[in-house]
Design brief:
This protein has 196 residues and is of the alpha+beta class. 26% of the residues lie in helices and 29% in strands. The protein has three helices and nine strands. The strands form two sheets. A seven-stranded mixed beta sheet has the order 1-7-6-5-4-3-2. Strands 8-9 form a two-stranded antiparallel sheet. Strand 3 (26-33) and strand 4 (36-42) form a beta hairpin.
Length: 196
């Protein structure tokens, strides 16, 4: 079976969002264009890392081009997208590996999210080699979402993604672990239960 690539070049909309209540949320990347929508599930930490790396990469592009690249320093307000995910949210796959790149010729940020794949190997070296072979296999590799964004779209995506990540449960002021509505067993207070 050949590799399935969900390509959006460019998308009408590319956002990070969630389904569910804080503490039990499922995170998604969702790309939409021309009447089709692709949603892929991932972990909260992956969303946060993606948003931070996009901002870092865009900052580096601005620095290296001396400001001549079409990349705003901050996300423009008019590009803010606060709408919920498009429904129905149907997971195509769960993300395992992500990659970022800047296409200098097209002046686009390239975001790739590949499906999680479980491999078996006898040693760590064999596992790393098998992973690399699979990820580089353009014909039979895991499914992939590939999105090409303008600098402005990438900044807006990163801003929203960080807002979505931070919209969860508030952190405990002592240990920084998330507070549940029913309370929190704080390790810094030897298990004393704090109310939210």
């Amino acid at each position: 079976m050949s590799r399935q690539v969900f390509l959006y070049d460019p998308p009408d909309r590319f956002v990070a969002g969630t389904v569910g209540l804080p503490g039990r949320r499922t995170f998604f990347l969702q790309a939409t264009a021309g009447g089709r929508t692709t949603s892929v599930a991932l972990e909260k930490a992956q969303v946060e890392a993606l948003a931070e790396r996009i901002d870092e990469l865009l900052d580096e592009v601005v620095r290296r081009t001396g400001g001549s690249a079409p990349v705003p320093a901050v996300a423009p307000v008019e590009f803010a997208d606060t709408a919920p995910l498009d429904t129905p949210v149907e997971e195509e796959f769960r993300v395992g590996t992500m990659a970022l790149a800047w296409d200098g010729d097209g002046q686009r940020m390239v975001v790739e999210a590949q499906a999680l794949v479980e491999l078996e190997a006898d040693t760590d070296e064999d596992l790393a080699e098998a992973e690399e072979r699979l990820l580089q296999d353009e014909l039979n590799g895991p499914p992939m979402l590939r999105v090409r964004l303008t600098g402005t779209m990438a900044r807006a995506f990163a801003k929203r993604a960080l807002e979505v990540v931070n919209a969860g449960r508030p952190p405990c002021p002592l240990c920084s672990l998330p507070l549940d509505p029913e309370g929190h067993v704080c390790p810094r207070q030897n298990g004393y239960r704090r109310g939210a």
